Structures are given as structure tokens and as C-alpha cells.
Amino acid sequence: MALAACNPTGGSGGDEENFVNLYTARHYDADRQLYAAFEEATGVAVRALTGNAEQLLERIRAEGDATEADLFVSADAGNLWRVKEAGLLQNVTSPALEQGVPENLRDPDGAFWGFTKRARVIIYRKDAVQPEQVASYDDLANARFRGQIVMRSSTNTYQLSTLASRIERQGADNARQWAAGVRANFVRDPQGSDTDQIKAVAAGEAQATLVNHYYYVRLLKSEDAAEREAAARVGLIFPDQATGGTHVNISGGGVTLHAKRPGRAKQFLEYLVSDAAQNLIAPLNTEFPIRPSITPAPELAALGSFREESIPLDALGRHQAEAARIFEEVGWR
Ligand code: FE
Predict the structure, then answer these.
(1) Phi and psi at residue 124, to the nearest 5°
(2) 93: CA distance to ligand 1 center in Å?
(3) What residues contact 239, with CB distance under 8 A and at least 6 apart?
(4) Distance from the alpha carbon of residue 7 to the mean position of ligand 1, in angstroms
(5) What phi, psi does 148 have (nearest 5°)?
(6) Direct distance between the N- and C-terminal alpha carbons of the chain, in angstroms, rounded to an integer
(7) Is residue 8 over pLDDT 70?
(8) Which pLDDT does position 104 carry in this prediction?
(9) Exposure of 80 in the CB half-sphere (CA atoms within 13 A)
């Protein structure tokens, strides 16, 4: 990464170089449009190095205080928490961040801040299941679905975060009982991605599963007619509307401990949660805006509004190891 000439433009990174380096586990076209819009608005260039969350964490760790990473960006608070826990993020805050990001969608210490939101939803086969039979995560553990549930592997961060949120809300014993009940309903050993689970349900191999909402939205909007037909055969439920609310997670970012341009990094984070960036990304994004006041993409708006859980996001990290243990104990591989 080359150094750019110093040409300050004001803002919180005013005395710093005129670029910011991201290590990002996201790689969407919408993100590149955001970088361009930020550069247009501020004169500060965004340089993004992409990789998976684990690789980027290891790279930041290996680079130590020589790292060129100013901001770490990833989906899932579980991934962000691992970087925080490794001592590689610094706590930051500002009025723009505090006002821009709801409390349940940021790290309580300010180590990372959400800028988009995703929901863990139930997908069910419309010709076999009534929506009220899958209104709650608990229903996936109901004996009525014996041999009718497909699930992704428990090593996936989304599953770990889902169980971690249950540990936080209802305790470890409850979480173990639930995981054992769902495990008892498996039609096959866990395999494949979230999208593969939806396709298995659509194909009649199972009656229900658990996925992040945007995988369903992607199938709905797919250019492949077979994928659109698969989406048409299934329904989506925001679980636990009558109780604790649907499990939500974030895509978010945190300023690295050894950032060379911490002011620029914070400036970019503030931009990501601003009305301008949120409105720009909303129609391009299959995730929800970070605030309810921003209108989501039409496909998302069509899913309706929902009640979301409210737990401190770092709980997803704090309970991650215990979630992994419980999955292991109940044989959910
Ligand atoms: Fe994903």
C-alpha cells in the first residue's frame, strides 16, 4: 500500500493523510459505491483489502504495530468480537456514532459499530407448514418436526451467534435443550450454506430451517428462474414476535488498535451510519438499514417490520465458546 500525499480536508481526521485503509470481509458492489461516495464528499480515498474475517484478523495480529489497517470491517458481531478480544481494536465514540447506531447494534465499549442489520429468520415450506407452527425458534425443536429440519453446521458464525443470543436471553440450560431438540429433528447431518438450506426446504427435503434473511431475498431477486421458484415455494417468518424478538446481527466496523489514521477511520465509520450513506446503500443492499427511520429496499420493506431482540452485542462474543460447547454436546456438528 503506497502512501498518499498529505492534503488535509478537515473533519475528525483533518491532520492525517488523505486516505483510509480498510481490511474488510465484505465484498459487495454496494460497498464500492459507498467508498466512491465518501471520497467524493470528503476527498479521502478508501483503500480496501478484502479477505475472510479469520484471515484478516490473523493478518492484523501478525502485522502488529506496523499494520496499515485503520478499520476492520466484517459481517457478524461474533467476528468483530474476536478481533476486539484479540486486543486489536480501540474503543471510539462520537455524537454521530452514538446518534446513528441504536444501542443494541453496537459494542457497549465502542470497539465496533454496526452499519447494516441482518435478521435470523425461519424459512418454511408453504405447502406443508402453517406460519403459526413456526412462529418461534422454539418450534424448530418441537417433536412435530421430527426428521423435518435442515440446518447449517454449528461451526458457522451465524449459528454460534444465534445460540449465543439464546444463552444471553434464556440461559445455557435452555439453550442446550433447544439445540438438542432441533438436533433430534434433523433430516440429515448439517451441510452447505444458508442458501442450500432454503433450497432443501423448497425441494421438499425438509419443512423448515434457519437462515439470514438476505439469502431468501437474493433467491427472490435471482436471475435464475429455478431460484425464484424455490423462493416462491417457501415462506419467511420473523420468529419470537410475541416474546424476545427476532435475533439480529450486524455488519460493522472497528478502528484498529494500531491505526495510522484513526481520525480518518472514525470519519469513515461516521459516514457509514450517516443518512447520506444509509440512503445510498439501502436500495443496493439486501440487509436492513441500521436505523428504522431509513427506508429499506422494496424487497425488504415487503417483508414487513418486525420486533428485534435487544441484547448487548458483545454477548454474542462472550457466549461464543459456550455455544460451541453446547453444539458439540448435543451432536449438532
Ligand atoms: Fe452471509
Answers:
(1) -135, 155
(2) 27
(3) 120, 121, 122, 134, 135, 136, 137, 139, 246, 247
(4) 37
(5) -130, 10
(6) 40
(7) no
(8) 93
(9) 34
